[in-house]
């Protein structure tokens, strides 16, 4: 028996959405994929990120929504790392 954990798959009924995180000029800074049950679930996931910048999310070629910058973020200065920026993304944000 292997000591590796089995791969966990998500419900096949979920759809893929892409979240475009925008810079202050409205240009795409980076993007992330999320899986959601529907548009409302996708919106809730994007809002939960509490990003200090605007973002919009799409499903294929359909623009689903736009989320304003979170005003509750303590530090919105340039160079701030995003909640789950790692490696290259974290260095690029500096």
Description:
With 94 residues, the chain is an alpha+beta fold. Helices cover 17% and strands 30% of the residues. The chain contains two helices and four strands. A four-stranded antiparallel β-sheet has the order 2-1-3-4, covered by helices on one side. A hairpin with a 5-residue loop joins strand 1 (15-22) and strand 2 (28-36). It is globular and about 35 Å long.
List keywords for this structure.
disordered C terminus, 4 strands, four-stranded antiparallel beta sheet, alpha+beta
How do the helices and strands line up, and which of them pair or pack?
Elements: E1 15-22, E2 28-36, H1 39-48, E3 55-59, E4 62-67, H2 88-93
Antiparallel strand pairs: 1-2, 1-3, 3-4
Strand-residue proportion:
25-35%
Integer tally of domains: 1
How are the strands ordered across the major sheet?
Answer: 2-1-3-4
Q: Indicate the low-confidence ranges by residue numbers.
A: 73-94
Largest sheet: 4 strands, antiparallel
Instruction: Compute the number of helices.
Output: 2
The total beta strand count reads: 4
Q: What is the terminal-to-terminal distance? A: 44 Å
Helix amount, in percent? 10-25%
Outline type: globular
Computed structural class: alpha+beta
Radius of gyration: 15 Å
Question: What average pLDDT do the residues reach?
Answer: 74
Oligomer: single chain
């Amino acid at each position: 028996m292997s000591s590796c954990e089995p791969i966990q798959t998500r419900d096949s009924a979920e759809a893929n959405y892409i979240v475009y995180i925008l810079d202050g000029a409205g240009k795409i800074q980076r993007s992330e994929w999320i899986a959601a049950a529907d548009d409302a679930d996708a919106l809730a996931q994007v809002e939960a990120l509490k990003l200090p910048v605007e973002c919009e999310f799409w499903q294929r070629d359909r623009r689903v929504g736009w989320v304003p910058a979170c005003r509750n973020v303590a530090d919105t200065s340039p160079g701030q790392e995003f909640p789950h920026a790692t490696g290259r993304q974290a260095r690029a944000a500096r």
